[in-house]
Amino acid sequence: MIIYGVAILAFCYVIGQLFGEFLGKAIGIDANVGGVGFAMLLLIILSDWFNKKGYLNRNTENGIMFWNQMYIPIVVAMSATQNVRVAVSSGFIAILAGLVPIVICAITIPILAKLLKNTQLD
Amino acid sequence: MEIIAKFLEKNGLVVAFLAVGIIIYVSGIFSDKLTNKKIPASAIAILIGLILAYIGGIYTKGEKGIADIKIFSGFGIMGGSMLRDFAIVSTAMGASFLIMKRTGWVGALSLFLGIVLSFLSGVLVALLGGYTDAISLTTIGAGACTYIVGPVTGAAIGANSDVMALSIAAGVVKAVAVTIGTPFIAKYIGLNNPHTAMVFGGLMGTTSGVTAGLAATDPKLVPYGALTATFYTGLGCLFCPSILFLLMKVIFG
Fold this sequence. Notes:
The complex is a heterodimer. By secondary structure, chain A is mostly helical. Chain A is built from 5 helices and no strands. Chain A has helices at about 1-25, 35-55, 60-80, 85-90, 90-120. The longest helix of chain A has 30 residues, at about 90-120. Chain B has helices at about 1-10, 10-35, 40-60, 75-80, 80-90, 95-130, 135-145, 150-155, 160-185, 195-205, 205-215, 220-250. Classes of the chains: A mainly alpha, B mainly alpha. The interface between A and B is large, with 76 and 112 residues.
């Protein structure tokens, strides 16, 4: 049943996000630390385990894949709710403070990616 | 007319489904006919979304883009953090645990570098802008991480409200620029595999920018970038008001 898939996804979401909330509290900050990341790891492990046990039929999987497919439409809706007016009309400093980190980090990406490749050869 | 407006307002989420469907359909035609599929439909759809957000912002002077127009309030639910995170988690289905494990330590390194580099370049820009006190510099540097790290840090160390607003604006500029820019720079930074996507997520950090940018580049990369980016804001909120603020205090008094 489709709802099983949705429920599995919801289970991972709730557990992961709660874990992120508590982790944030534990290190003393008012923010969720990696909740979505933990939820994703949990879903990977759970779906692998269900697959091996043969619990995942096509309908159940569709309950998860529906949201997978809804991802881009949701991102479109998200971009339509960004505070673009502030981004465009904010002064020179705000625009530079947003752009300079992107440039510097973008330059760093190939260096780190190379590091990764080198260590894999070892 | 009033009946229609009221109806649309009351059924916001469903109206948003319809509107987004139309946006994506139109984007598909644009992508096909005008760009010969060179610019993916999802990238055009996201760009249309941003334009709508700008129009909404100009029209209502609000903060939530098109969602501030009552009949489009459903965009706020559909694009809000709950459904967004729920959908991001679902993308993990089909992602490779092996790759994530293998990239793990570089992902962690990229997170750390991403926060420190963004922070320092934000501080540099703030210095050029004439700010010299540790609190303002830290708050603007934190805003250069993400638009959540900025105000959280500013509130923690007692920044004044115009510096807070500036730091939020910097974070928003970053999110929007990453969204638009990613498909264009992907080629030059080798962003075409899961490993690089994880490094990318850790360095850029802005969850909305990274996930939207990767969706426009190659949807298969989304889970990898999202996995690292999701730790960024939390770690930024940890480092900026503490170690990095102390560092600024030592240097600028």
